[in-house]
Write a structure and sequence with these properties.
Blueprint (H helix, E strand, L loop, with lengths): L10 E2 L2 E2 H9 L7 E6 L4 H10 L5 E6 L10 H13 L5 E4 L3 E3 L3 H10 L4 E7 L10 E5 L5 E6 L8 E9 L5 H9 L7 H9 L4 E5 L4 E3 L3 H10 L2
């Protein structure tokens, strides 16, 4: 769907998806900089977008220096690229650029801060459990800890799925690099990192309300244009 155009810049109701994400972030006072990671192929389009966009927070564009699917770093690889090149020494909020959601980010971050130094992931409960087979499926205990994670199971036992939305405390940033060294062939899907991390530390889950669309193809883009509020 987006070989020639980046998903975050696809429009929903005449506005790029990334605009919705940033507008949601504007209300989060503890965030002082927004880092947008893209590749060499699309960096020009993001520069054009940035010139037009009027935001409240500092926006930094990062080119991960890749040009195709063959040499792409993957989602975890891009996070690691930013950590190494920006020398980040603070908590990190990661949001997938094709995630369109209306839930309250302040509530998510307040929840995450209470559960530091552990990572917190955002989740959403689908109406149809069968649709969960396209995502990472979660089982969560009463204390909001993730007790089970399955990446795209054929027969999901839950309708609760992981969004590409993570609060990673500074204490756990080094684990990204550790994962990269051990799992060089599993850097594309963030769910694989969640599965790996779950075996090493507690992960907490915050369930978002409102609407959520993972813009993976034209069908979901059309649905978002119709139903997103």
């Amino acid at each position: 769907m987006t070989r020639e155009y980046p998903k975050p810049l696809l429009e929903v109701k005449n506005k790029p998806i990334i605009n919705y994400i940033i507008n949601n972030l504007n209300s989060v006072k503890i965030i002082d900089e927004l880092i947008v990671v893209t590749n060499s192929k699309f960096i020009g389009r993001f520069r054009q977008w940035k010139l037009r966009f009027k935001g409240r927070k500092k926006i930094t564009l990062v080119d991960d220096r890749t040009k195709s699917n063959e040499d792409r770093l993957g989602a975890i690889g891009d996070i690691n690229f930013v950590l190494r090149n920006r020398r980040i020494k603070d908590d990190l909020l990661v949001i997938g650029g094709d995630n369109l959601f209306s839930g309250n980010l302040n509530e998510f971050i307040n929840f995450a801060l209470k559960n530091k130094p552990n990572t917190t992931i955002g989740a959403y409960r689908l109406k149809n459990k069968n649709d969960a087979s396209k995502y990472g499926v979660l089982k969560v205990g009463r204390d909001h800890r993730v007790v089970e994670f399955k990446e795209k199971p054929k027969r999901p036992n839950s309708s609760l799925v992981a969004m590409c939305l993570y609060y990673i405390p500074v204490e756990q940033l080094s684990l990204i690099g550790n994962y990269m060294k051990l799992n060089k062939n599993k850097v594309d899907a963030t769910g694989k990192y969640v599965d790996w991390l779950k075996k090493k530390a507690d992960i907490f889950c915050f369930v978002f309300k409102g609407s959520w669309f993972d813009i993976g193809d034209h069908k979901y883009l059309a649905a978002a244009n119709k139903d997103f509020k």
